[in-house]
Amino acid sequence: DTEVTQTPKHLVMGMTNKKSLKCEQHMGHRAMYWYKQKAKKPPELMFVYSYEKLSINESVPSRFSPECPNSSLLNLHLHALQPEDSALYLCASSQGWAGNEQFFGPGTRLTVL
Amino acid sequence: DQQVKQNSPSLSVQEGRISILNCDYTNSMFDYFLWYKKYPAEGPTFLISISSIKDKNEDGRFTVFLNKSAKHLSLHIVPSQPGDSAVYFCAAKTQGGSEKLVFGKGTKLTVNP
Fold it and tell me: How many helices (H) and strands (E) does chain A have?
């Protein structure tokens, strides 16, 4: 299995809703990432988990809350988002310190109304 | 401060000809470079990478060249095919340090039949 999977594919939510994005990989990778990508822009790093511990938080607002329940799963909990948070949210994984290539999932297209 | 620059937002080539995508970087600590290809509404797909100890890496139709003194790398696609039409992102990182990838803004490649 050489894939990173993400669910849901699309999500529409109101500013008062609470929702979660899910990411899964079964490649034995020990580092997992959340990125945000706006149209015609490069991916922007949000969070990095290394060996299930949060190692990088790129000053992301607290309305985004990451969680890494185990080495294969990564969640992004969303609460009280703003319309400007609408974007493609990408999950990626890599071998961690031993690996340099990050492999991306297909993304979740989020729309905040 | 943009540490990875792709100065050409778009490139158009004929099928069968060579596509050359360029990338410049400013951070001399970067020592590992990657190219990703992205179709609309999909996650980036890893294409090819190069470590700073090399000046060339080849994989099928794709070759990446690294000029460390000029802080410049390029991706050559030969021969170009219509299916290569996508946005190409250059990315850089420091091996053995932070897991953070720094992306350029991307170049949209169009290969015309």
Answer: 0, 11
